[in-house]
Design a protein that fits this description.
Layout (H helix, E strand, L loop, with lengths): L14 H18 L3 E2 L5 E3 H9 L3 H6 L2 E4 L9 E5 L4 H10 L8 E10 L11 E10 L9 H18 L4 E7 L3 H15 L8 H9 L13 H5 L10 H17 L4 E2 L11 E9 L7 E7 L3 H4 L7 E7 H7 L4 H4 L5 E5 L4 H14 L4 E3 L6 H11 L3 E5 L1 H6 L1 E6 L5 E5 L3 H5 L4
Parallel strand pairs: 1-5, 7-8, 12-13, 12-14
Antiparallel strand pairs: 2-4, 3-4, 5-6, 6-11, 7-9, 9-10, 10-11, 14-15, 15-16
The structure holds histidyl-adenosine monophosphate.
Amino acid sequence: MIKAVRGTRDLLPPDTALWSFVDETARAVFRAYNFQEIRTPIFEDTQLFSRGVGEETDIVSKEMFTWEDRGRAQSEKGQLITLRPENTAGVVRAYIEHNLQTRGLNKLYYIGPQFRRERPQKGRYRQFYQIGAEMIGPPTSGSESPARDAEILELLATFLDRLGISGWTLQLNSIGCAQDRANYNEALRNALDPVKSRMDPDCQRRAVTNPLRVFDCKVPEDQPIIEQLPRISEFLDEPCRKHFEQVQEILKSVGVPFTLNDRLVRGLDYYSRTAFEFTHGALGAQNAILGGGRYDGLSEQLGGPKAPGIGFAIGEDRLVLALNRSAEEMQSKPDVYIAPLGAGMDRESARLARELRHQDLMVELGDETFRLKKSLETASKLGARFALIVGENEIKADSFALKNLATGEQVSVPHSELVERIRPNS
Ligand code: HAM
């Protein structure tokens, strides 16, 4: 038997009702904040991620699904292509490619699959889904303002509240401007120099090439060394510190609680200044429900104009795990089950079903070969509110037996009154 590939999974009903509920809630919240949808390709030129996300990150160095897209002719040189491990780099590429800076501040959101070759476990998949948003524009559009950072964080709090998810913690940090991080990296390099030989080989290499990435080392024996390293909060220059303070002031004024965490550096290289994650207690080891931050230099790094930005991506798989709702409860049930009774009644029932569906009723259609008992049992199993019996007598009288499946009450309803009688809350 052929099975779904390791780290991928089928999302089936009734669970898909939860996913739709999350998607629809996200779209409604994005609308309230005037975000518009963007859809970028699922695969991109590999360089986009190595230059955007960073060569030394776990994502680029270990987790990407990459292949050579050979041309048909032997002589054609292959291009390296990668399934997107995240969507920020793709959005910024599209921003540059389509000259979106002429539109001022762009507020874009996306919902879709991402791919990382990670070790699968609960809440961690190789194909997973993100709901993300990016706010990006030229500095004159206000894209650098701390008000934008606070707006993004307040949007996230609103979204989680709307979903009924409580028990989250917003972990907030500033990882400084480019110069702060250069100074910090230097300090980390100096601090790591005498101790790095005791570390895991992967961490040793990072200690030299990109010391900030040492914080992503998960080897337990290295943690006491990592714990002793200098803290980014000591390296913020005045404008960066001010920016961070203003973000915090707005958050306090709108009532979004947060916890400062100066060890939060995020696993992608494009960040500067504000960085954040929302964690959730119910999720176990993979407790980061979402992450994001500023990426003021990313556009320039990818060959574009100066376009500061901030955004986030929510792990939808994890969000659904944290939703305290039953999938069955979320699933819509048919308003009416049409039970054709006897030969020739499929045809009549199809006409009636078409009419009711055009009135936005949810209709399930039976089959004329079923006995009435079987039809009624099927209707109950599906959770339909009514069964509508369509037999020869009903067609002649143009009046139908409508059975309320909750109360068992059955009445004869003229054709012209059917929609009104079946419609919920009527
Ligand atoms: P990220 O922290 O790499 O950030 O991913 C964001 C979220 O995606 C994580 O917090 C987690 O919930 C989910 N996620 C990541 N990997 C997996 C996985 N293997 N299985 C299930 N869920 C996963 C980004 O991707 C940035 N692009 C976010 C961003 C947008 N920053 C600025 N704009």
